[in-house]
Amino acid sequence: MSVQERKVRERADRERLILVTARELAEQQGWDAVTTRQLAERIEYSQPVLYSHFRGKREIIGAIALEGAAELAAAVRAAVGAAKGPRARVTALAYAYLDFAAQNPAVYDAMFQLDGGLAFAQDETPEPLKDGFAALLETLGEVAGDDVDPGLFTELFWAALHGLATLTRSGRLLPQDTERRTQLLVDRLVGRDGLGSRGPRRS
Amino acid sequence: MSVQERKVRERADRERLILVTARELAEQQGWDAVTTRQLAERIEYSQPVLYSHFRGKREIIGAIALEGAAELAAAVRAAVGAAKGPRARVTALAYAYLDFAAQNPAVYDAMFQLDGGLAFAQDETPEPLKDGFAALLETLGEVAGDDVDPGLFTELFWAALHGLATLTRSGRLLPQDTERRTQLLVDRLVGRDGLGSRGPRRS
DNA sequence: CTCGATTGTCTAGCGGTGCTAGGGTTGCTG
DNA sequence: CAGCAACCCTAGCACCGCTAGACAATCGAG
Questions:
Q1: Where does the record place the HTH tetR-type domain (chains A, B) (predicted)?
Q2: CATH number of this structure's domain A57-190, picked from the four choices 1.10.10.10, 1.10.357.10, 2.30.30.100, 3.40.50.150
Q3: Cβ neighbours for B116, distance < 8 A, ≥ 6 positions apart
Q4: Given this structure, which CATH class describes domain B1-53?
């Protein structure tokens, strides 16, 4: 039976090779350069081999998106874990998120700009995506404020980060002001005390 | 010379026809369906005619993006004009923005998701894009707060709206909570008093 | 050990894409 | 009215995602 095991292992290896190569190519030359022909040539197999691992290009993108979600969640948790106090944790989360998007633009595209054929915000949503949101919720939930739904607050904060990430990446926002914008975001959405309260009402 | 004038007019008419048709097709069936062949057939000319008006498909997308920017600016100004008080104006702006994105998804895509070959955040940026940002700045600048740069605050608010718009459209956020998210956004970024102040520091 | 069956891979090709070269026809101009 | 210039279309290029079918290598049964 060892022969079969070897074959299974080799197949798994080749599937990893496909994903690693696709990701590499996308980061180097953009997703437009990731064609099935180019990808096949790089892995030194013919095109049909790709289709014995994935239904099509969409599914390759989707697989990389899932990888990315797991990595983003890990990066966020690592950054948050090293920070003391609610406000510091949120700040660390924001920087970790934006850094990830800036450092892995192709993967971020796979997650949010391209069609990877993944389901969102429903039951069939793959685990890594749910967990990615959970990683945000862990930190952001504690600063949502008393009468605010943590999930809703997390969605809003996430949307703001996503907007900053994408607009910056596409050249609509200048990168040099990223830090000031991030500080302002945390200031406003969380508050300076880090407890999500807003001070007394004035009117 | 009247013949030449007629020709110029006809050319301009045809260019409008191309843009109207492309936009219509994109809204009806998505940008994937906007191929040069399909578009040529709809305007009842052959493909090369398209290239006598635009350098390529990118430029068509770009032209529609500029139209969209002008319309978005107008929609925002109209909504803001009908509102009394800074906070009400910001709320109206937010809804107008999100409504525009939801009602004209293909145009919004042309503006922000697709490559229209346009320049951003620099001198060569086309006027409609600058004016679109200006429309946001007019209302948002007055609630930025004393020690906050109005431009920076506008960028942040815009990014949040953009994030909400795109994540909602792609199914990552559920539409039914849009109103609550928008209220929370305005509450946090502007403050309940509508003057951009945040209450006394607590720590 | 032989021989059929199964598995794996490749070549070749389909229908589509954006874009363009070159030939005609049309209609204006002197 | 003749000649010319402007205009538009047919045909085709190189590429895309994807797949059918031929071929080779490997496996398992007799």
A1: 12-72
A2: 1.10.357.10
A3: B58, B59, B61, B62, B63, B64, B65, B110
A4: mainly alpha
Inter-chain contact B181–A152, Cβ cutoff 8 Å? yes
- Listed as ranges, the nucleotides of chain C within 7 A of a protein C-beta are 8-13, 16-22, 28-29
**Gap between the Cα atoms of B69 and B66, Å rounded:** 5
Give residue ranges of A with CB < 8 Å to any B CB: 112-113, 119-121, 148-149, 152-153, 155-156, 158-164, 166-167, 170-174, 177, 180-181, 184-185, 187-189, 191-195, 197-203
On the question of pLDDT at A57 being above 70, the answer is yes
Q: Do B172 and A198 touch (CB under 8 A)?
A: no
| pLDDT tens string B167-199 | 999 999 999 999 999 999 999 999 776 655 444
- What was the ipTM of the complex prediction? 0.93
Closest-lying nucleotide for A4 based on CA to C1': D27
